[in-house]
Amino acid sequence: MMSSVMLSAHKKCCQQNIVYMYMLLLYWTSLIKIYVADDIDLDLLSLGPKETASQRSTAEEQAGSLTSPFPFWVPRQAYVLNSSRLPENQRLWPEIGNGHLATVVYSDTIHMNGFYNGKTNQSHRARIQSMTSVRLKVDLPSVQCSQDYALHLDEGSFIESTNCNNMSLTLSVRHRIYAHRTITELLVNEIVITKTRSQGTVDVTLDWQPGPPSQDLDTEVCPSSQHYPRSPLCQHSSTKQRETDYSTKTEIYMYYDQVPSILKVESHVTQMTWVGLLSLHPNADRASQAYNEGRSLAESGSLYNLHVQAWYELWRSGRIDLLTRGQLEVPRLVYSGLYYLLSSIPLLNDAEWPFVGMSPGGLAHGGSEVGQPTSRKSKSSDCFYMIYLQDFWGHVFWDQDTWMFPSILMFHPDLANTLLSSRKRIHQVAKMAAYKAGYSGAKFPWEAAFSGRSGQVMFVCESCIADIGHSVVFR
């Protein structure tokens, strides 16, 4: 079930537009926040086993006793997507993000807002090596283990749970991954191991999977790095190619924890926790401060609670809740669509590293490492389009203005203002482009990366490009 939900919520161009159009239709036809189906029966709300009070209590306890933003009649299965396995196609695996950085879970790649490599029409999201990407391996002879994967739309996190049980051992391993909602420089891996009924030592293997070095970046160890047992590692990277002749290469700093090969739970220990942090920012001090703040909050046990609280406030400030006749597919699609939109927008616009806009493929996608371009001729015009498997290389399209902006404006006007600011940021560049083309006003490109100049990789006619201006001005 999870595979189909993730596929629909993955924000492929056509699929995301259907979700956004559905949200618009519900809003403008009902003009209310809750859409109620005819002859609703509350007993039909659950597709699976009904959630008990103890289960909901346990979920809230793990989130720091915060009260869920969703009403009681919305079953938890509508916003917590569970499966015993992940889709075979890794591009359909869940994404986590906060508007500053994003990744596909278990991926060896991180992408950051506004961070591109390549000149003009070769510009694409620069791949950042995920230095804390890890998979768990629990190998216990004669012990039966089960796995569960869950994307928590409400809390903005992904959790892999492994449970092992026999006559002499009960073991629970929970691996939680999230991009922190308020400390946006942070990507967090949290592993909690709980065991009972065991007199011996239990080992949990951590398979470190950072992948190969990025082909987009020149990377070196930070000159000031100190390698003490408690200190993070540090990397300094810069893009290999400038976006334009007038641009400069972009630099980033990464502070991260070294991933241990094994977590050993001694016989007298019933629970242990490992929290791996990774911090990214173009400013070295910002990256370092975010790491230190995250480490302090992790040691006090409040890092995740702060993250969940911010997500809960987002959901409370606006969403569409659906009552349906026992079918959860549509509510899941609506919640997923809004989740992926919110995951690509920062809560606050960073004056030092501004938000550049939303791409149709989301912040977690857009690198050059996936697929090769193919082409076809549009049946509706004389324009030629390039269909790129790389999610349009992370460029900002008119999709942001026409499809994404209205859905955000309805419920999150402050975030809608952040989307508008991404166009204001490149307004002078657009005015210069209009002047060079012999026009007055502003001429926004079909595709834009950081500089605001055309990063066009789709062959389109001039009239198609004019549509971009209409979309931007209409907002």
Please provide a written account of the structure:
- This protein is of the alpha+beta class and 475 residues long.
- It has ten helices and 22 strands.
- The strands form six sheets. It has a nine-stranded antiparallel beta sheet with strand order 2-10-11-12-13-19-17-16-15. A four-stranded antiparallel beta sheet has the order 3-4-5-8, with no helix packed on it.
- Strand 4 and strand 5 (109-112) form a beta hairpin.
- Helix 7 (399-411) runs antiparallel to helix 8.
- The two termini are 37 Å apart.
- The relative contact order is 0.15.
- The model is unreliable at 1-15, 25-57, 370-389 and 458-462 (pLDDT under 50).
Sheet having the most strands: 9 strands, antiparallel
- Structural class determined from secondary elements: alpha+beta
Radius of gyration: 23 Å
What shape does the CA trace take? globular
Strand order of the largest sheet: 2-10-11-12-13-19-17-16-15
What are the low-pLDDT stretches, counting only 5+ consecutive residues below 50?
1-15, 25-57, 370-389, 458-462
| CA distance, first residue to last residue | 37 Å
Strand content: 15-25%
DSSP helix fraction: 25-40%
Mean model confidence by pLDDT: 80
Q: How is the quaternary structure best described?
A: single chain
Q: How many strand segments? A: 22
Number of helices: 10
Write the layout of secondary structure elements.
Layout: H1 2-8, H2 13-30, E1 34-36, H3 53-62, E2 80-83, E3 95-97, E4 101-104, E5 109-112, E6 116-117, E7 124-125, E8 128-129, E9 134-137, E10 144-152, E11 157-165, E12 170-179, E13 186-196, E14 202-208, E15 217-221, E16 233-239, E17 251-256, E18 262-265, E19 271-281, H4 284-300, H5 303-317, E20 321-323, H6 329-342, E21 374-377, E22 384-387, H7 399-411, H8 413-425, H9 427-436, H10 462-474
Parallel strand pairs: 1-20
Antiparallel strand pairs: 2-10, 3-4, 4-5, 5-8, 6-7, 9-14, 10-11, 11-12, 12-13, 13-19, 14-18, 15-16, 16-17, 17-19, 21-22
